[in-house]
Amino acid sequence: MKKKIEITPNIENLFGTRDENLHILEDGLNVSIDLHSDSVGIEGSADNVHRTEQVFLDFEHLRKAGHTFHNGDLGSMLRVMVADRTATLRSLAEAGKQRSQGVKRMVQPKSVNQKKYLDMITSHDMVFGVGPAGTGKTYLAVAMAVSALLNKQVSRIILARPAVEAGERLGFLPGTLQEKVDPYLRPLYDALYDLLEQDKVDRFLEKNVIEIAPIAFMRGRTLNDAFIIMDEAQNTTTEQMKMFVTRLGNNAKAVITGDVTQIDLPHKRSGLLEAIDILKGVQGIGFTMFDEVDVVRHQLVQRIIRAYDDHKERTSNQLKLNLDENAISAKSKASRELPTQIEQ
User: Fold this and answer.
1) What is the largest CA-CA distance in the chain?
2) Nearest of 118, 128, 65, 60 to residue 87 by alpha carbon
3) Bridge partners, residue 159, by sequence
4) In this predicted model, what pLDDT tens digit does every residue of 261-316 receive, in sequence order?
5) In this structure, are residues 59 and 89 in contact, taking their beta carbons and an 8 Å threshold?
6) pLDDT tens per residue across span 13-70
7) SS3 for 67?
8) 24, 75 in Cβ contact below 8 A?
9) Are 100 and 129 in contact (CB under 8 A)?
């Protein structure tokens, strides 16, 4: 099927640098896009030509509505759209605008798993985001918490993170409770200051609208009307995880994030791993599993994660090979010694 679309003013902003956004559409939707002086030609299957045409129509609608795309957001949205047939450029932009009211930057998913994660946080009261560093699981959780707070869906945000290095014995550290746990909560603060003006964050902290609640100090509480985030959950014990997930009160939402490849617990099973096994299938709880393709930091981070995964697989295979060789060697040695033992 072929389709010709008339070129409208500023439509070239959709094309991207060196037409990179058009290449995303061509590769993702298996269409051919030809640029002419007064029109754009699209060729491919009827369904994919229609989806491509819809991108142009959505972009024109958003442009007329005053929507502005920043920092590669358009390219990211197109990648999500071509991978998720339920998504359109318009729906992604409008959802991002809704999430981003009152914050400094547009909050948009940059991968299909990130979109699923955001949708799951919207539709579930408890969500686990599990995956390697740089996949946006903590940042997006904080963004959703800030959005819920500013839209008056909750009255406070509670941030928690296990302090493994201090053995949770925070009383031995100098300073106030907040000063004791600040080093462990730095990634959460970074996200807050990236989304909100510093004076607003400081004011929220001062008024306990944003509350610091170390895992060790949460026992016995019921957390109502709150958006609760536990980061680095792989470093919780079984007891800590069970205690945390049972704190949820009325009109509350919890997001638990962690990376099961970075467990620092000494001689204990991770509460996150156990929770994944136990809570899968429980109604109202959602799980999003990220992998290296979801990494949105520097491209080098994605390659580093893949290198570590490859090394782990090679080491595991080599260990298995060594065990097999040892077993064969032991069996061979036993078979050689058997006749001697019989003669004796």
Assistant:
1) 99
2) 118
3) 212, 229
4) 888 887 778 999 999 999 998 999 999 999 888 887 555 665 676 787 778 778 87
5) yes
6) 889 888 899 999 999 999 999 988 888 899 999 999 999 999 999 999 998 888 888 7
7) coil
8) yes
9) no
